């Protein structure tokens, strides 16, 4: 079953799509002044990374603001996707957390009347990064919502928000999309060969964007191969240091490629949004507005680059951890599909040459490296510590 | 190599009016050229050199400037100087430059980049060098590579004073250069001072020369590491590397003293962990490199300048692969401590340095 319109990008989330579509229908009745049940003022989208939390929230925002429940064709839908809709406030962390001042300003703006006569939507990505003071300011707004204001919060899990906020939000939980559904979407939407699609979906471990990149960008697939080739090469001090340096290079290249791609398509969308409906008197205003919007976009893209780099390291390390979990599975004789598809020979070799105890220690080294990178330890240094530990066994 | 020092080069001069400056080290080439020109013109820089004032072939030099017409090619002392690029010369230009002038005076011709001379100009240049008029001083520079090699061979066959200025790449040559610079200013520098200065300034010879002259002007007594470090205290990376060098060399007391001092003057702890990581890493890469790799090969593979490779090779003595692995893990731990919420980054760094020194003995 595949959804249409703005919800088409949500993969493997059938029940969530049904719930959001019916809420959007109820919201449309409210706009027309009819009685309706099933709409809420505050929503919390949670789910594992790559499952589509912010995709779902964005699609829901489009559905609320569109006259046809999220057609994905009208100017309103395009403006939501480009982040330029007048009644949509997108809040993203610039640094690593939100301050209370920004949140207060936001609360004030959120109470204003929607210019399009439908809803005022505030989409808060990574709401878990709000500071405690900021969260308290947010709480007041959610407790006494303006009649036409909708709050959409996204966070990896509900536990990461204040209980008081959590209890006032309607919870939307996305699941890890099954590999089968990701593969089907890759075949249907990106024209990927079914077998390659399945391998990419399994390798991505439920991360839709990652699966798509693995299946459609040969560079991404090659970079994953580079990561998974590391364990087989760690034969001593020199190779371990060289492998760490090569990993840094591969990961940073992947992060840069993703950032370039996102930057490009956002700029494209922004231009399209400003191009639409800008005839006559509107043109001058649109041009003036676009300069500010482009500057704003560039600032956000810069801070996103930093986050993307950290995410890319995390993915590489998760790939590596999955490799050693595959090794452990082979060592314990479990009959499961290996995540490290395409690297079965490497898995078998490492499994035969080490004990399960060593493998457990190795997984721990990879996890230590993840923690180090999360607190901004120099990436090369953290990776060297890890590859040296992996080489030592 | 010390023969390339301009001070020595001036003393080496023979009676020939032909000077050949060969090599790519720009600073030294420039010094050799201006030394030769100054000698020919009898300017004040050189006239203090007794050997030169005693040189009968040049005795007319200092005297002739008195008669030199004002306004000749910007000359203040002595004969006019023609400074030309070989690549821009056409056949006959040299003959014109060296033709006897109305005033019948001497002249100095500097031909730069002889390797770029056209075939005809190269022939003219060789001819001029072979039969140099007694009142012409000719200074030729050549980078010394394959290009224009025939010309270089032909020129060296003449009775020329040759000044070699090859690119300085080895640490030992860099050290000799620094010592020579301080000697020029009548100062002495000890080994720790040379090292600290090279660490602080890097490999660019002009920057090194400028630093030497600054230090000579602004400090007193023997130039030691302490003097250099105090002078460069604003440059945080300098002190980070000084700490790291002492640590990987196993000099615990020195390393700790420098660490405390660095923290006292406000060097960020992360710069010290970063320097420690770089030092240990480089030792690891150098120690694990295949036998017989040259500094240059390693430098390009690792992406560090050759002189650093040279330093790391010496520092690598006393390190085992196991010790290096442990030391890097300790630095990672310290980096986590100073970036996390460690109550005392200073303590974390001190502990790391103690463990690194202990790892060295393993
Ligand atoms: Zn629409």
Features:
heterodimer; A: 393 residues; alpha/beta; Rossmann fold; five-stranded parallel β-sheet; B: 362 residues; Helicase, Ruva Protein, domain 3; Zinc Finger, Delta Prime, domain 3; 3 domains; 5 strands; disordered N terminus; binds zinc ion
Write the CATH architecture name of the largest domain in chain B: 3-Layer(aba) Sandwich
Spatial strand order of the main sheet of chain B: 2-3-4-1-5
> Largest sheet of chain B at a glance?
5 strands, parallel
Q: How many structural domains does the protein architecture of chain A include?
A: 2
Query: What sequence of helices (H) and strands (E) makes up the elements of chain B?
Result: HEHHHHEHEHEHEHHHHHHHHHHH
Mean of pLDDT of chain B: 80
- List segments of chain A where confidence is low: pLDDT < 50 over at least 5 consecutive residues: 277-282
Using the CA coordinates, give the radius of gyration of chain A. Answer: 23 Å
Q: What number of domains of chain B? A: 3
Range of strand content of chain A: 5-15%
Query: Radius of gyration of chain B, rounded?
Result: 26 Å
Shape of chain A: elongated
Q: Structural class of the secondary elements of chain A?
A: alpha/beta
Distance between the termini of chain A: 47 Å
CATH topology of the largest domain in chain B: Rossmann fold
- In CATH, the homologous superfamily of the largest domain in chain B goes by the name P-loop containing nucleotide triphosphate hydrolases
Oligomer: heterodimer
Structure notes:
The complex is a heterodimer of chains A (393) and B (362). Chain A is of the alpha/beta class. Chain A folds into two domains: 5-177, P-loop containing nucleotide triphosphate hydrolases (Rossmann fold, 3-Layer(aba) Sandwich), CATH 3.40.50.300; 219-393, no CATH class. Chain A contains 15 helices and five strands. Chain A has helices spanning 14-31, 53-65, 75-82, 100-110, 132-143, 163-168, 179-190, 194-203, 208-216, 218-233, 237-275, 282-331, 344-352, 356-374, 379-392; strands spanning 42-46, 88-91, 120-124, 149-155, 170-173. In chain A, strands 2-3-4-1-5 form a five-stranded parallel sheet. In chain A, helix 10 (218-233) runs antiparallel to helix 11 and helix 12 runs antiparallel to helix 14 (356-374). The longest helix of chain A is centred in the last third of the chain and has 50 residues, at 282-331. Chain A is elongated and about 70 Å long. Mean pLDDT of chain A is 85; it is low at 277-282. Chain B has helices at residues 6-11, 26-41, 44-47, 50-53, 60-67, 93-98, 119-130, 149-156, 171-184, 191-201, 205-218, 225-231, 236-248, 252-264, 269-287, 295-302, 306-315, 321-339, 345-361, and strands spanning 18-22, 81-85, 107-112, 136-142, 161-164. Chain B has a five-stranded parallel sheet with strand order 2-3-4-1-5, with helices on both faces. Chain B has 19 helices and five strands. In chain B, helix 10 runs parallel beside helix 12. Residues 1-15 and 44-76 of chain B have low confidence and may be disordered. At the A-B interface, helix 11 and helix 15 of A face helix 15 and helix 18 of B.
């Amino acid at each position: 079953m595949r959804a249409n319109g703005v919800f088409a990008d949500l993969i493997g989330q059938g029940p969530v799509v049904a719930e959001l579509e019916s809420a959007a229908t109820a919201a449309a009745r409210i706009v027309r002044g009819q009685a309706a049940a099933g709409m809420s003022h505050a929503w919390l989208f949670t789910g594992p990374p790559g499952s589509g939390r912010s995709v779902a929230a964005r699609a829901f925002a489009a559905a609320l603001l569109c006259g046809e429940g999220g057609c994905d064709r009208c100017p309103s839908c395009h403006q939501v996707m480009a982040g330029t809709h007048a009644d949509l406030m997108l809040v993203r962390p610039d640094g690593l957390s939100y301050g209370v001042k920004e949140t207060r300003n936001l609360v004030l703006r959120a109470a204003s009347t929607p210019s399009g006569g439908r809803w005022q939507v505030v989409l808060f990505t990574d709401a878990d990064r709000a500071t405690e003071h900021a969260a308290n300011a947010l709480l007041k707004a959610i407790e006494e919502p303006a009649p036409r204001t909708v709050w959409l919060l996204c966070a990896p899990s509900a536990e990461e928000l204040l209980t008081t906020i959590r209890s006032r939000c309607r919870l939307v939980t996305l699941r890890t999309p099954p590999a089968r559904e990701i593969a089907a979407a890759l075949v249907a939407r990106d024209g990927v060969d079914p077998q390659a699609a399945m391998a990419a979906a399994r390798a991505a471990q439920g991360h839709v964007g990652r699966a798509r990149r693995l299946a459609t960008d040969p560079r991404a697939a090659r970079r994953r191969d580079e990561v998974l080739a590391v364990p087989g090469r760690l034969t001593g001090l020199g190779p371990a240091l060289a492998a760490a340096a090569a990993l840094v290079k591969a990961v940073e290249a992947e992060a840069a490629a993703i950032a370039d791609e996102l930057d490009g398509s956002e700029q494209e969308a922004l231009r399209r949004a400003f191009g639409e409906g800008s005839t006559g008197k509107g043109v001058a205003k649109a041009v003036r507005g676009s300069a500010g919007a482009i500057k704003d976009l560039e600032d956000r893209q810069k801070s996103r680059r930093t986050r993307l780099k950290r995410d890319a390291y995390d993915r590489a390390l998760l790939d590596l951890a999955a490799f050693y979990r595959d090794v452990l599975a082979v060592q314990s004789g479990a009959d499961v599909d290996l995540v490290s598809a395409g690297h079965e020979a490497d898995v078998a070799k490492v499994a035969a040459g080490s004990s399960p105890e060593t493998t457990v220690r190795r997984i721990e080294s990879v996890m230590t490296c993840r923690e180090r990178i999360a607190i901004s330890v120099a990436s090369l240094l953290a990776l060297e510590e890890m590859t040296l530990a992996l080489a030592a066994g | 190599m010390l023969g390339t020092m301009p001070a020595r080069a001036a003393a080496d001069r023979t009676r020939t009016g032909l000077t050949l400056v060969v090599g790519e080290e720009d600073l030294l080439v420039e010094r050799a050229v201006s030394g030769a020109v100054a000698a020919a013109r009898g300017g004040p820089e050189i006239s203090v050199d007794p050997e030169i004032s005693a040189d009968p072939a040049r005795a007319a030099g200092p005297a002739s400037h008195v008669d030199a017409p004002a306004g000749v090619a910007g000359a203040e002392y002595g004969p006019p100087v023609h400074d030309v690029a070989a690549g821009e010369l056409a056949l006959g230009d040299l003959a014109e430059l060296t033709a006897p002038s109305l005033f019948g005076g001497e002249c100095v011709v500097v031909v730069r980049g002889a390797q770029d001379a056209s075939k005809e100009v190269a022939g003219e240049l060789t001819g001029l060098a072979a039969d140099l008029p007694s009142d012409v001083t000719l200074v030729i520079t050549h980078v010394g590579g394959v290009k224009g090699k025939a010309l270089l061979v032909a020129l060296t066959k003449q009775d020329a004073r040759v000044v070699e200025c090859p690119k300085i790449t080895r640490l030992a040559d860099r050290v000799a250069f620094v010592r020579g610079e301080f000697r020029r200013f009548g100062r002495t520098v000890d080994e720790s001072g040379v090292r600290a200065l090279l660490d602080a300034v890097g490999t660019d010879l002009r920057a090194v020369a400028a630093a030497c002259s600054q230090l000579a002007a602004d400090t007193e007594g023997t130039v030691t590491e302490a003097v250099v470090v105090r002078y460069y205290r604003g440059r945080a990376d300098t002190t980070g590397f000084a700490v790291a060098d002492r640590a990987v060399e196993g000099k615990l007391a020195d390393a700790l003293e420098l660490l405390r001092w660095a923290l006292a003057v406000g060097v960020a702890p992360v710069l010290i962990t970063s320097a420690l990581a770089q030092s240990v890493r480089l030792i690891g890469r150098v120690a694990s490199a295949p036998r017989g790799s040259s500094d240059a090969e390693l430098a390009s593979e690792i992406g560090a300048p050759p002189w650093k490779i040279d330093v790391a090779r010496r520092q690598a003595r006393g390190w085992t692969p196991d010790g290096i692995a442990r030391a890097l893990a300790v630095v990672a731990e310290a980096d986590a401590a100073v970036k996390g919420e460690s109550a005392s980054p200073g303590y974390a760094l001190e502990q790391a340095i103690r463990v690194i020194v202990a790892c060295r003995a393993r």
